[in-house]
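Work Package 4 report. The design task specified in the project plan requires that, given a folded chain encoded as structure tokens, an amino acid be chosen for each position. We show below one input record used in the internal validation round.
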């Protein structure tokens, strides 16, 4: 699977956003959303959910969120969970690696944050592959840390900060 290619050859170094590119820029996003301010984030989350629900190009329940530290990955995932009717407090699972929530319709939402893992084995140890094989919605922060085990149908979502401090959210179809 090659959604993201790594420029550096030394895999022992900690990956930084600048080390990762989306297919040399040749792949076009399926859809781009712009979040102008925090006041707009829930509206954009609603549009995001509507798009992924209705798109014929998206047949996956696994979404890998890429972006620099502070780009808004956690904040956007919180907004997605709110729109889906999660009643629990949604926090980044930075130290627990995974948080589980239930949508208003009762389906599970798994929020992963792999920022702090040091070895791929840690992802295996928590049963990541079982979550990916299940029916729940998987929302993954820092997926580049587990690139080797991301399913081929995983949808890549890029969040970038624009010069005016708005955010661009781009959805890329899987390379299958």
């Amino acid at each position: 699977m090659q959604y993201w290619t790594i420029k550096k050859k030394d895999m022992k170094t900690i990956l930084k956003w600048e080390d990762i590119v989306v297919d040399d820029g040749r792949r076009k996003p399926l859809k781009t959303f712009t979040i102008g301010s925090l006041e707009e984030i829930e509206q954009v989350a609603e549009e995001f959910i509507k798009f992924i629900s209705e798109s014929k190009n998206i047949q996956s329940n696994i979404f890998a969120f890429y972006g620099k530290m502070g780009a808004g990955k956690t904040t956007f995932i919180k907004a997605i969970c709110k729109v889906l009717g999660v009643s629990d407090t949604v926090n980044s699972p930075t130290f627990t690696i995974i948080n589980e929530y239930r949508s208003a319709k009762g389906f599970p939402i798994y929020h992963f944050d792999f920022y702090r893992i040091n070895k791929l084995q840690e992802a295996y140890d928590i049963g990541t592959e079982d979550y990916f094989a299940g029916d729940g919605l998987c929302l993954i922060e820092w997926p580049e840390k587990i690139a080797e085990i991301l399913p081929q149908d995983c949808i890549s979502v890029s969040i970038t900060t624009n010069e005016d401090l708005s955010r661009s959210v781009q959805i890329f179809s899987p390379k299958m």
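Residues 157 and 171 are 5 Å apart (CA to CA). Validation will be extended to a larger panel in the next phase.
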